[in-house]
Amino acid sequence: MSCVTRIAAYLLGIAAMLLGLPGATLARIELEPVQHVYPDSTYQEIQQAIDNGGTVYFHRLTRLTGQYGEYDQIASSTPDVPATSMAAARDKGFFIGKFGKDVDIIGILAPNGSRPKINGGTVVFRVGIFARMGILGLPVNFRIENLELANPDMADAPLMKSRIGIMVVSVLGAQSIINNCKFTIIGKQTDPGHQNNHSVAIWYYLVNSSSATPPVNGARIDITNNTVIASGVHEGIHVDNYWPVTPGYTAPRTFVSNNTLHLRNLCGYPNQNGTNGATVGAGILVVGNLSDSIVTNNAITGDGRSPGLTPRVESVAVRLGRAGAAGTGSGDQSLSNVTVAGNDFSSFASDFHLLIGSVVVGSTIGRNSIGPADRAGVMCDGHDNQFVNNHFYGPYLGWAPPASGPGLFWFTTISSNNTVEATKLNGPSEGADICGQVLDESVAANNIRGYEKCR
């Protein structure tokens, strides 16, 4: 089955859902061979089925007794003890793409919608290149759908690459879909500097590697309808692409939509630079060469703040690019024409809700519901972006004396030509005080209606 046919069927399914057609779901063409695995299948049987490619159905009932069971093949009896060897670490997850075969991994749902449950594993599903483990995966199309990935553990080496649900490294096929999965992750709490905590539910790490080829031209990434319940992680969903922009090359188009994340106590790590030496933990992070990305209709709840950690952690609902003028030196490239719209963060407490990096250009951030923040609702280093019809909830005291914040918008000295329109605070009849709620350090470089009287 050609990739073009699969993508066309998928897009038709999306169109049907948007039109509200009865019974419309994401179109899926069953790939051959069709294989079935069960809670009492061996690790080797499951990995072999994935290696064969095609469609692999995960059942909830055991093969031998027909009773409900869970998948414990990669679970560890000592989840906080590092693996004693790389061979042991390899057995702590399933690998996709080792032989370059496309695969759909589909859980068979119960009548009540519950999913087959996979317990443990340092990284439950690995896609791509893991050279230290001797895995040099090839670009493949894959789908992971209707599975519950519960409590991945720390038994990997190095520790920083563990407690991850799905991780895609260096290579990418034309289409990858992660849909309707549930992730439950408790990140590492014992590292005083939280430097090794790279726990995350879904991580695309498309790094320029000598042993890899760039993602397929015009590839598509869909992360949709998933549920993430996590504490002590550095991100819920993380997508980055550090392959350089070249003539004729279209970076992966990324869609992060209709996901629900409940997060507590986000942690950071060193190269996610925040303000004044802080690190950053985010609900959703999009960085690198990923222009035209879409982040829509996601809900984030909980409390992402982690007081008392050193270095300090800044929690964020959504982050685009990295902070400060140094963002371009950290692998970031122009992140243009991104849409962040229709998201609901009104029940999420954090330091910031939106961090817009210096490489973010010509993007639209609109119709989002934004909850309380300790530092600012939005902090922006970028330029030529539109902030339209965002609705803020919470005790935003503003920066007008005698208040000292937080306010709704903080535009830094390197930001320029951003616009703010139709902002609401707490209720539809209560507008925002522009002078008190906008801090523009750019010396009139931004276009904020009504702000000229505040200078």
Domain tally: 2
How helical, in percent, are the residues? under 10%
DSSP strand tally: 38
The span between the termini is 62 Å
Radius of gyration, taken over Cα atoms and rounded to an integer in Å: 22 Å
Largest sheet: 18 strands, mixed
List low-pLDDT spans: 16-25, 325-330
CATH fold name of the largest domain, please?
Pectate Lyase C-like
CATH architecture type of the largest domain: 3 Solenoid
- Taken as a percent bin, the fraction of beta residues is 35-45%
The CATH C-level name of the largest domain is Mainly Beta
Q: Give the overall shape.
A: elongated
* Mean pLDDT score: 84
Question: Count of DSSP helices?
Answer: 4
Structural class by SSE content:
mainly beta
